[in-house]
Amino acid sequence: MSIYDTLNNEQREAVFCTEGPLLMLAGAGSGKTRSLTHRIAYLIEEKGVAPWNILAITFTNKAAQEMRERVDALVGYGSEDIWISTFHATCSRILRRHIDLLGYDRNFTIYDASDQKSLMKEVLKEMKIDTKQFPERSVMSEISSAKNEYKSPLDYRNEYGSNFRNQRIADIYEHYQKRLKENNALDFDDLLVKMVDLFQTNPDVLEHYQDRFQYIMVDEYQDTNTVQFLLVSLLAKKYRNLCVVGDDDQSIYKFRGANIYNILNFEKVFPDAQVIRLEQNYRSTQNILNAANGVIANNKGRKEKKLWTENQKGELVHFKQYDTEYDEADGVVSRINFLAMRGVQYKDMAILYRTNAQSRIFEEKLKQKNIPYAIVRGISFYDRKEIKDLMSYLKVVDSGMDDLSVKRIINVPKRGIGQTTINRLQEFAILNQMSFLDAVFNADEIPEVTRALAKLHKFADMIEEFREYASEHEISELLEHILDVTQYRAELEAEGTDESISRLEDIEELFNDIAYYEEEEENPNLRDFLAEKDMYTLNAGIDNLEDENNKVLLMTLHNAKGLEFNNVFLGGMEEGVFPGFGAMMSGDESEIEEERRLCYVGITRAKERLFLSAAKRRMLRGQTQYNRRSRFIDEIPGQYLDTEQRVSEQRVVKNTERPAKYQYGAKAGKPYNLSDFKVKPVGELDYQVGDRVKHIKFGVGTVQEITKGGRDFEVAVEFDRVGRKKMFASFAKLKKVK
Ligand SMILES: Nc1ncnc2c1ncn2[C@@H]1O[C@H](COP(=O)(O)OP(=O)(O)OP(=O)(O)O)[C@@H](O)[C@H]1O
Ligand SMILES: [Mg+2]
């Protein structure tokens, strides 16, 4: 039996059809990636193609690595000579050899996002451009889109230059390119642009690589952009052995310039293209697949295709609507616990969500239950830059003892206090045995910082003012005030990029967190709030005790593309969350369709079980919102959905009393009471006041106080080594000792 016997007829056809252009257009889980890897094996083993004549391009490093593993397993000798890499890696490798032909030095530097940003800053400064009108990030994203479309500064000017703003952007684009070149640097998008430049201006080099890569394969082709398409077409022009595989229903990167017409028009560009459609899905149960089919059928203007499977029917797709997002996370994590007890490995479970900010509550609950988890290609909520910045502000307002926090924010947002000044302050603080913040307050006495004195005074006054403000206002109001005075939020809003939007969402999520805390606690105050958050961070260390690879994976839907898991939890299935508020408000049906494709991607990641969940009430943008369940739930044909849940999932509570707008801290006259649906406190504790207990980090101490808080018991312990600490019982996991 050969490896090709494990393929179905259509897959085999794709594998055996090695010459000429080939489009494999097929739904999720139908074996596109699998066919691709077998095709590589076939080329080498049966067709005698040399491994180095094959180029396989994937979308992410993780995908490239997975493909490499699959190919290694199929192909024996010589598999290391096959080029399997991302677009960017391919380009950088080739440019290293030839970029001198474009007037760059071969040891060019590749600028990452932060390098790009600093260069753009310099450029704008040199050109005396008002960054209020032209925020660097939005200029950068405009330039990036132009590059994705393979438009030079000149093209850009010719095409869009009719208005003043675009003329200025063309100027900036031109200057930015000039500066990159002076620095002998390429930004990320340039890697592709310069490679196409190289091929178009040097036919002999192009021909060399055409001869080299006689067989080209591209996975996830639906998410390629114009410049990537150009590159592939150029390379494939001579031998025309180009095989692209993709699924137009999974095109989810329109916002990054992905051009869905690359796939829809493939047959136009290559009229002799073979088109193979795969319709059998091998990944998911019937119920999951039918649910996915039901949802995606609502998109108009798609190439009709219907996936089927011989897999078992399996469980129905579960859907549950919880009262709040905390209950949702609680429910999901309990379910994970339950499955784990029945022998399911953590790594076979994944939690997917629409936006990064949604990870926070899941993370909290997972930590509470001590379940190991990892965030894929993302940063844990409390480690994100904006959250660390704002938490540092709150810490500094509460107490200036934490030097790191002060240093973190002293020049964020930028207020012209440089590293040298910070060093001088630090030296002074050490010399006089005072905190860093006290050194700032006493800056008058430090001769070396006189030039920065005015700025330091301003900073010190601002902190003083925050402290006064804090004494009379609630935490959420304080945070709002800080964002206002520092212009932190305004700066992000001005950027208007994907990244800044994600950061703004995180900030709103922090507000939600605070709002919830203020609702829950009888006596909410800044210090306790910060202490509570510190405990989450402390707990993070415990993860390391677990098996490195056996973790529940958390990731956004975008990062889940191409992957598969036995059990998938897809949270936040609500209107305004998924589809997102922005897409709904845009009034643009194509934005809803992109969200629907994303939902299709999410559902089709699941092999055995799929748990969809939603919350009736959720803090969004600092307000309690009552969200209807997502339209995508309604689009799943009822017979595939767990109907039991449907009964309990009646329309939202009578909504007549819905608050028009919930104001932070407007304690009086609140129309609803969060404590009605709060998480139950942990059961009885097995220690009491006076007992000796042990903490994983602080060591042994004596319990001094136990108070029953809203969500949990609060325990105060006098530790022998580190003194008195207050903590939540469920986090502290204190063990009684003799
Ligand atoms: N003929 C087959 N026989 C058995 N299993 C198969 C077959 N074809 C594919 N599979 C399995 O089905 C699953 C999905 O395959 P694959 O990842 O290649 O699908 P895909 O079309 O690339 O999906 P996606 O669109 O999500 O990227 C994999 O676990 C794969 O091993
Ligand atoms: Mg795939």
Describe the structure.
This protein has 738 residues and is of the alpha/beta class. It has five domains: 7-96 and 190-279, P-loop containing nucleotide triphosphate hydrolases (Rossmann fold); 108-182, Orthogonal Bundle (Arc Repressor Mutant, subunit A), CATH 1.10.10.160; 315-377 and 543-641, P-loop containing nucleotide triphosphate hydrolases (Rossmann fold); 381-432 and 440-523, PCRA, domain 4 (Orthogonal Bundle), CATH 1.10.486.10; 689-734. Helices cover 45% and strands 15% of the residues. It is built from 30 helices and 20 strands. The strands form four sheets. Strands 9, 10, 11, 12, 13, 14 and 15 form a seven-stranded mixed β-sheet that branches. It has a six-stranded parallel β-sheet with strand order 3-2-6-7-1-8, with helices on both faces. Helix 3 links the parallel strand 2 and strand 3. Helix 9 runs parallel beside helix 11. The protein is globular and about 75 Å long. The model is unreliable at 539-546 and 645-682 (pLDDT under 50). The structure holds adenosine-5'-triphosphate and magnesium ion. Adenosine-5'-triphosphate (ATP) binds next to helix 2. Residues 5-285 form the UvrD-like helicase ATP-binding domain. One of its GO terms (molecular function) is ATP binding. It is an enzyme of class 5 (isomerase).
